[in-house]
Amino acid sequence: MYNYALIKQVNEVLKKNKLDLLGKDNSFYTRFIANISSIHSLYLELYGLHPKKDEVFLQIIQSIANTYVNRSLDLKKKDLEKAEKQHWFLSNDIAGMSLYVDRFSTNLRGLSSKIDYFTNLGVNFLHLMPIFESPEGESDGGYAVSDFKKVDKRFGSLEDLEQVIQSLNKKNIYLMIDIVLNHTSQRHEWAERARKGEKEYQDYFYMYDDRTIPDQFEQTMPDIFPESAQGSFTFVPACNKWVMTVFHGYQWDLNYTNPAVFREMLAIIFFYANLGVDILRIDAPAFIWKQIGTSCQNLPQAHTILRLIKQCVQVATSGMALLGEAIVAPKEIMKYFGTDNFVAQECDVAYNATQMALQWDALATGDVRIMLAAQKDILTKPYGTTWITYTRCHDDIGLGYDDSSIVEGGFNPYHHRIYLKNYYSGNYESSPAKGALFSVNPKTQDARISGSLASLCGLEKALEVNDKREIDYSLKKIVLMQACSFFIGGIPMIFYGDEAGYTNDYSYLNDKGKSYDNRWMHRPVIDWQKNERVKVEGTIEHQIFFATQRLLKLRKDLPMVADLKNLTWLNLHNIHVAGYLRTVDDKKLYCIFNFSRKASYLTWYAFKEHGAVPTKLYDHWQEKYYTVGHDNEYLILESYSFALLEVQ
Ligand code: GLC
Question: Is the whole model's pTM more than 0.70, yes or no?
């Protein structure tokens, strides 16, 4: 759509910056002109009736132009390289690790000295958990930010961060950090000024004089942390008002009905982009728009905000991809990739939280039917977008997949979820897992699960009683879980410590700022003496590290693993075995996983249902060849084992 007035406005803003619009800045200019209409209409969808809409819109255009002007030549070059690769983040070459800087390497300077550790493991993408200023004791692991531009002194300084980014660049390691879009800490300057009574800043939040509106909201808003933070509003005595606090009482929700809030947060997004962030993790995007009478999650306007951000980023800092951290119902997650005219034009990346939880489900039951039943939604992901695939992260495991998948898998949803919760929280005697229930809702009995990969796979319990057989099983489970998520398509994200078999750490119970939140049990403090053992053959640490390293290396060598909408699930032939086929050009890779504690048999017929029938397969994991047998013959998979079979 051509809008004369709008293009004129853009040109006027650009005239003030000395840009070479037909030369070196031409691709920026073309992007701007190409996107400005949709930027404008998305903006009007949100703010069309706001009295300050024109003023703020102009500021946004200026901000886009300034961000581009201030972007370093190196980053502009990188933007171009990424554009030429097209969807650079779909590659099978990328593998990530997510870590807390202080718990991993004390501070940012320490992190630079660990780069060889990452490259040795095969990690070339880092997610640094929040590093911007956040008050000790009320920080929610850094997700309560009091200054979006100041690195918290616990980690170092902005200069240290810039130094780290340079070191990562030299080694071609990509970087992801968070933008905590939904809320600020109650100690953020905007919150402090609101508390002091400044109306301008009170309008940055949802603040009310009495309980009338909060009560209306709360009728339909679920509690996110029902054990530690009941209700969605907190009373602020200093200004005698109620403020919306969906997460903890110290995290004040930003009010995006105010365009000034959008403008401010966009500027912070641009600030991170110009630091050199490759993927920006948008924290909790499901929550950014609120409306009385709804759950205040996944509302259409939240998607409009994300689309608007995407369009602006595409113009100003085109190489930075966006990840939407939407840990919501499977059908809702898919919408964060964009719908209708915005398919693949919203978030480029999302967490495959559904698959993650389904793998934990299959591991607990030894039955893959629910996992298979739930794939229909996951498979609708559009081309050009990708997943973060993972088994564990800093958060809990939610069992949020649809009841209908559980029913289709042959189970009763209510009893099945109780079983899973008991299995992983130690309330089921014969379970090898050691975890805990997180955020139990007394009204609904809903709960999520905390615990480290190793502990949930049984390593902690097995070590306690020094049971060699169980230790062995747990190691096999750890590798099975990682393998299933590494090859399924998307960017694998290892949670730090899992590569070296860290079990739960209960020391958080002695810290007042953490003891109310058992997610800290799976956020270890790295003991580098323990990690040294990854080099010593025969140790548990070495076995897990070596297997993880091998898997990552294989992934990089197998082009079929790139996320090109090239995944087909195999039909079910054995309830313990899940398999998917990955293809690119004429290359095919069958990935087969046995979730059972016993050996499982898979008919060779399973390999004959998808195009040309293979005769010979090479298992990259066991390094051996198979001849595809008759339909009444079987591929035999040992307990908790898997095969990565390339068609020869
Ligand atoms: C995200 C984070 C989680 C945090 C929440 C509130 O879900 O992953 O750790 O508690 O947002 O910011």
Answer: yes
